[in-house]
Every structure is written in C-alpha cells, then in structure tokens.
Amino acid sequence: MNVEYEFQPAFTLMTANLEPGESIKVEPGAMVAQSSDLNVETGRSSKGGLIGGLIKSAIGGESFFINTYSAGPAGGWISMAPSSPGDVSTFDLEPGQDLYMQGGAFMACSPNVQYDTKFQGAKALFSREGAFFLRAYSEGGPGQVFYSSYGAIKQVGVTPDAPIIVDNGHLVAFTEGVSYEAQKAGNWKTTLLGGEGLVLRLSGSGKAWIQTRNLEALASKLMPFLPDRSQ
C-alpha cells in the first residue's frame, strides 16, 4: 500500500492511502483521522481460543482486539500515530519470515499479517523487556508491519563476527536469525550502581532496531514528582 510519513522522527504521523477494496489492520487507539468513506470492523487480534488470546494479549503488551479499515470503490486514507512521541517504521515481510517486536511497538499491518507471542526463555525474566516478544508473520504472500518507537529509530546490523550490546529499554524489534541473552552490564558493582542493570547481547545474523529514548527511564524520572496517593 502507498504509505506517507510526516513529522519524523519525533512526532511521526503515518498515512496509508488505500486503493479501492484495500484494507489495513490497526491497533485500537492509533487512528488519528480518516476519510469518511472507510468501513471499520473490530475483531480479535490473534488466532486461537478466547482464553488463549486474552493471555497472549496481556503478556504481549498489545490489545486483544484489532480494527480493520477497508476502502470502498473510491479508495480512502487513514492517518495513524503511536501513543508516545516517536517514530514509525515499515518492515516488509516475506512469506515464512518472522519479525520480533517488543510489547507496545506494533501499530498496524496489512490484512494478511498475523502475530502472536513467543516466550524468550527463563533468561528474559530478568530483563525489563519482559519474557515475551510479539512475532509477526505473513500468510498468503508478502505483507507489511508498521511499528513504532519512543524517540527515533535506528537500524543496526548483527553478524556472527559483530554481536552488539543494547540497553534492554531501547530494543524495538529484530529479525529472525538474531537471538539475545540478558547479561550484566559489567561486574556486579557496575550492574547494581552504574544505572544500566541488565543489558541484552544480540548475536547471530540479521537486523535490529533500537530507539533513542527509554519510556521506563522517563517514568522513573517523573516518579518523585507524582503525588503520593497513600497520604
């Protein structure tokens, strides 16, 4: 589909221009404006049973429901934006290819893209990223995934000879072929007192996307200024 980006990278607005009969699946709350002739239907965001879907949505950080916007005979458009200030990027999915995203990064996708949650192992229980990532995959041909960040997005390459270290609050997405493990930022003194805690070592072969801001770090900065509800 024809997609336009405005106001990158701090306050990105994405507009999908739909051809007649074309559709796009959008995370609830992401729609900013749309042409008046689009039809919208709300359905479950993932396959499987009701209970399983609710559990996957809860641990994956995304809504249990998803909105599908479809254009009529004249086509149409829909503009979207993430909930926090930041950027939006497109990933083109080939059949049989997976894209992994942190919870909250997914914003929209083409109608043939599905997503579920993948447990990353006990090692991830010690990471602020959480123990689950969203896995997006395409059915019935190529598809597109539109994901967002807090701050700007930067793409980095990962190769067997050049693994990278990412602060666990800055990882947005990565392709299959890239694996990660949580590890200390340095020795125990650095881990406990250096402000980094655990970091993620990305290895293998593929691409990763990182964000320039950390939402959890912002929350910790604001916490002392919030009123104490216990008083």
Overall description:
11% of the residues lie in helices and 45% in strands. The chain is mainly beta and 231 residues long. Strands 5-6-3-10-13-8 form a 6-stranded antiparallel beta sheet, with no helix packed on it. Strands 11-12-9-16-19-14 form a 6-stranded antiparallel beta sheet, covered by helices on one side. The protein has a 4-stranded antiparallel beta sheet with strand order 1-2-7-4, with no helix packed on it. It is globular, with a radius of gyration of 19 Å. The chain starts with a strand and ends in a 9-residue tail after the last helix.
Termini separation = 53 Å
- Which percent range fits the helix content? 10-25%
The average pLDDT score comes to 84
Number of domains: 1
User: What structural class results from the helix and strand content?
Assistant: mainly beta
Number of distinct helices: 3
Question: From the 3D coordinates, which CATH architecture would you assign?
Answer: 4-Layer Sandwich
Count of β-strands = 19
What kind of sheet is the major sheet? 6 strands, antiparallel
CATH topology call = Double-stranded beta-helix
List the strand order in the largest sheet.
5-6-3-10-13-8
Percent in strands? over 45%
Overall shape: globular
**Low-pLDDT residue spans:** 48-55
Tell me the quaternary state.
single chain
The sequence of SSEs as H and E is: EEEEEHEEEEEEEEEEEEHEEH
CATH superfamily: Mitochondrial biogenesis AIM24
